[in-house]
Design goal:
The complex is a heterodimer. Chain A is mostly helical. Chain A folds into 2 domains: 54-68 and 210-430, Cytochrome c-like domain (Cytochrome Bc1 Complex, Chain D, domain 2), CATH 1.10.760.10; 98-184, Cytochrome Bc1 Complex, Chain D, domain 2, CATH 1.10.760. Chain A is built from 14 helices and 7 strands. In chain A, the strands form 3 sheets. In chain A, strands 6-5-7 form a 3-stranded mixed sheet. In chain A, strands 1-2 form a two-stranded antiparallel ribbon. In chain A, strands 3-4 form a two-stranded antiparallel sheet. The longest helix of chain A has 17 residues, at 3-19. The model of chain A is unreliable at 1-34 (pLDDT under 50). Chain B is mainly β. Chain B has one domain: Immunoglobulin-like, CATH 2.60.40.10. In chain B, 0% of the residues lie in helices and 51% in strands. Chain B is elongated and about 50 Å long. Classes of the chains: A mainly alpha, B mainly beta. The A-B interface holds A 56-57, 59-61, 214-217, 219, 221-222, 225-226, 228-229, 379 and B 1-4, 6-8, 19-21, 23, 25, 31-34, 66-68, 70.
Chain lengths: 430, 104
């Protein structure tokens, strides 16, 4: 960039500081900003593939589960999961095969296994979690009836439990619940894990120390180069993004930090990625569906231009406030066969900063500013909506298309929660 | 496609510390695509690094190397201002190359 636009940048920055967000630079009038004439958007078509089909593999070949959980609540349909009900009649004492129960309790293929959240006596396999209580002595303190009911559906005793209703939601058959109870009854000896890295209560929290903006460390930086290319490339009608946005370093200095935003013409919240799809259709006539390579690349480029800017969603309109409230409500909705809500795992009041097996649950605050992000475990760059989709699938709830209104509301609620966090994109995470 | 390689070279004691990231799918030939068909084998086979034109590293790679390979090595005796070049050839005969001047 030459010295002249830099000087303009300083001028705008200083005037902007004087006048607040209402300042409009006439030289940049093609730029969308808050309280400005509306940017051209295509408003009719969906911004992602229809009918939406779940990913089968990521680009590196990491697979997505393919089960459909149509009988359970998700973010788009409330009240589908079976209501809480008493466990079916069972005879006491509960008879079962303790060894089969132990295998079930440790089986990662079924419900993720009990050790995801619990220490379970001296046969506990590697890296147990600590979301739930240590069960090493549960067989000495609880009776058969309690154990059976609790595994069947913990809400029978504890409305606040976040444990999945294993029996009631059909993760385990009744004979399997009996086997698990038989195993639990054998747990009578306290078990101290002395290895500090093995014990979830002393295991150090993971620290991400990789330099996300170092091109030789973060493969998503290749996406930044692609994004810059897409920005200057001629679109289907011969016009490029750069044809209107001639000084992107200035114009987009804070833009991505002010997204997502409520769009009155669509009456819902648009994130950077959906905005790209709709704005490109209306301006360059390019078709860049959400989560396509071009879309993600442009999203990285636009987020990267706003690096250092504090997240500051516009919540001034009634529409935005309604969307925010809905997003906050959705984050409390129990979804999927595992019956979990965002807040169950990602708030300090609940179970954030604990371990689910070898994975660490982070708080919602501090987790959005690095998107789109390279995921080393998946070999793929994910925008924030793909992250939402993966969260849904992980608790066995059908995911929504990336342009779903509900995801927009949640993205806005997360932006409000992360207000002031500095954009730092592209990120790199495991 | 954007520049498919990234390189950093800078002095660290009496050696140049070189880091290279290559953008490559490194297909093993065993992965299936969305339709369930095998994705053909396609990986970087040979990597060569030169220091001022002189060969300093000659590597034969296989399917075992991950996607977007990272390569780090040190060149003893290099000085600031020297030229480091890293090039690769894959199983399809495609080539990539990048060079960098060693920073102080």
């Amino acid at each position: 960039m030459s010295a002249v636009p830099l000087a303009v940048g300083f001028l705008i920055a200083s005037l902007g500081a004087l006048c607040g967000s209402s300042f409009i630079n006439p030289a940049l009038s093609a730029q969308p900003a808050t309280a400005r004439s509306a940017a051209p958007l295509e408003l009719e078509k969906p911004a992602s593939a229809r009918p939406w089909q779940r990913y089968k593999v990521d680009s590196q070949g990491s697979s997505w589960p393919q089960t459909q959980w149509n009988n359970f609540t998700n973010l788009a349909n409330a009240g589908v999961s079976p209501p809480m009900h008493a466990a079916p009649a069972f005879s006491l004492p509960v008879e079962g095969d303790a060894e089969r129960g132990r295998l079930l309790a440790y089986d990662r293929a079924r419900g993720g296994s009990c050790v995801v959240c619990h220490i379970m006596g001296k046969t506990t396999p590697a890296q147990p979690g600590n979301v739930g209580p240590d069960l090493s002595t549960v067989g000495a303190t609880r009776d058969d009836q309690f154990l059976f009911n609790y595994v069947y559906d913990p809400r029978i005793y504890n409305a606040k439990s976040i444990m999945p209703p294993w029996g009631a939601f059909g993760v385990y058959r009744l004979d399997e619940v009996r086997d698990i109870v038989a195993f639990l009854k054998t747990l009578k000896e306290p078990y101290a894990i002395t290895d500090k890295n093995e014990n979830p209560n002393t295991r150090p929290a993971p620290v991400e120390s990789r330099d996300n903006l170092e091109p030789t460390e973060n493969p998503a930086m290749f996406g930044l180069d692609s994004g810059r290319e897409v920005f200057t490339r001629k679109g289907a009608n011969g016009k490029s993004c750069a044809a209107c946005h001639s000084a992107p370093e200035i114009a987009f200095k804070t833009w991505a930090a002010r997204m997502p935003r409520y769009e009155p013409r669509l009456q819902r919240v648009l994130g950077v990625e959906e905005f790209i799809t709709r704005h490109a259709r209306a301006t360059t006539a390019d078709e860049m569906l959400m989560q396509s390579n071009d879309n993600v690349a442009l999203s990285i480029y636009l987020h990267n231009l706003a690096n250092g800017a504090g997240i500051s969603p516009d919540l001034s309109s009634a529409g935005a406030r309604a969307a925010l409230a809905n997003g906050q409500t959705l984050m409390k909705r129990k979804v999927g066969q595992l019956n979990m809500a965002c807040v169950d795992c990602h708030t300090r009041e609940q179970h954030a900063n604990k371990w689910v097996r070898g994975q660490y649950l982070v708080e919602s605050k501090g987790t959005t500013a690095h998107f789109p992000t390279w995921r080393t475990s998946r070999g793929d760059i994910w925008d924030i909506r793909k992250r939402f989709q993966w969260c849904n699938v992980s608790v066995r709830a059908n995911e929504l298309p990336p342009d779903a209104k509900q995801y927009g509301d949640i993205e806005l609620a997360l932006a409000a929660l992360n207000k002031g966090e500095k954009i730092n994109s592209p990120g790199i995470r495991h | 496609m954007a520049e498919p390689m990234k390189i950093r070279a800078k002095m660290d004691g009496d050696a140049a510390d070189v880091k290279v990231l290559m953008s490559h799918p490194m297909e093993t030939g065993q992965r299936k695509n969305e339709k369930g068909d095998l994705v053909p084998m396609h990986f970087i086979q040979s990597v060569i690094a030169t220091h001022n034109g002189k060969l300093v590293l000659d590597a034969q790679w296989s399917q075992a190397v991950a996607r977007n390979p990272f390569l780090g090595f040190r060149v003893k005796g290099a000085k600031a201002g020297d030229k480091i070049t890293v090039s690769w050839t894959d199983t399809a005969g495609d080539k990539g190359s990048i060079d960098s001047v060693v920073a102080a």
